[in-house]
Amino acid sequence: MKQTRLMMDMPITIEIADPAAPEGAAEPAFAFFAWVDATFSPYRSDSEISQINDGRLTLAQASEPMRAIFQLAEKTREDTRGYFDIRRGERFEPSGIVKGWAIHNAALLLRRQGYANLSVDAGGDIQVCGASPDGGPWRVGIRNPFEPNTSVKTLALTECGVATSGTYFRGEHIYNPLRAGPLVGGVASLTVIGPNVYEADRFATAAFAMGAQGVDFVEGLEGFEAYQIDTAGVATLTTGFTRYVAP
Question: What domain range is 213 assigned to?
Fold first, then answer.
């Protein structure tokens, strides 16, 4: 069973490789993504985050999931030496933490329903569990930031998450919280593999904001690997990355 829907301004693909999965098996996960968008999108005037940004709602009055996201964002800010921050001036933009969190939780929701082999892909950030339909690892491509319809590497993954930060998909949407102005450092894209997509996504966002030193930051994280492509097309990878590359 495999379905793709346009949600949260990006394609979301859910594939369940369990033979017994019915056609509607992914419906609860898609419903969860719809709730995430309705709650956390800063582009929807009726969302909870918009109510906080407009002063109609305080964080103390906010829902438990919203308060949890703020706590996770603060932890990530601390873990990345300030290179990740959902505060933009007087407003909050939580998508840098919400996207990976939502993918990871959608996968967990499906696992709780009894499905062991699945992939949840939202805009290229992916959580994989168990085996792919052919019984082997899930094959995940790293997009070429200069030709997004092609891949520069194919990964063979199971029970982990992969997230890529760059400007080829959503344009200039990542910033350096420690320095005003546009990003500097000559990085076109940075892909992070982690124990789950939530962890991979939050560190990919921060590492991309660090510029050329981002891959070195990931090198220092236990259980994570990274593949960085600079604006000249030169790739730099962490020492353990090649074990994930498909033969």
Answer: 2-244
